[in-house]
Amino acid sequence: MQKLYRTYGAAGALMDVYENVWRDLLNFISDISNEELKHIADPLTDDINCRSIQTVLSHLIKAGYNYVIAIRNNLGEDIKFQ
Q1: Whole-angstrom Cα distance, residue 61 to residue 66?
Q2: How far apart are CA 56 and CA 79, in angstroms?
Q3: How far apart are CA 63 and CA 50, in angstroms?
Q4: How far apart, in whole angstroms, are the C-alpha atoms of residue 37 and residue 60?
Q5: Considering just the CA atoms, what is the radius of gyration of the chain in Å?
Q6: At 44, is the secondary structure helix, strand, or coil?
Q7: What's the CA gap between 50 and 41, in Å, rounded?
Q8: Distance between CA 69 and CA 57 in Å, rounded?
Q9: Cα–Cα distances in Å, from 61 out to 1, 6, 9, 52?
Q10: CA 63, CA 69: separation in Å to the nearest integer?
């Protein structure tokens, strides 16, 4: 069940949007096989994060993780980026 954070203002509304996007992404990739995830779709790209569905998803997860670290650091914590 989806939680609604909108009572917490703009940040809460943003969390609602993120939750909806993640749910849509999970639904979209749920039928993709492991072979399809690993398939190199663009072997000529210079961007290693764009070669396969798997590399795009890995980049997405790491970017989200680092985004959260940036927010927490902005709130006064001292967390190192990975």
Answers
A1: 9
A2: 25
A3: 14
A4: 14
A5: 16
A6: coil
A7: 8
A8: 19
A9: 22, 24, 25, 14
A10: 10
Q: What is the pLDDT of residues 39-76, one digit of tens each?
A: 999 999 999 999 999 999 999 889 888 888 888 888 88
Residue 52 structure tokens = 């396969």
Question: pTM here?
Answer: 0.70
Report how far residue 10's alpha carbon sits from residue 6's, in angstroms, rounded to the nearest whole number: 7
Residue 61 tokens, joined: 């997860």
Residue 43, token pair as written in the block? 């072997």
Q: How far apart are CA 40 and CA 35, in angstroms?
A: 10
DSSP-derived letter for residue 66 is H
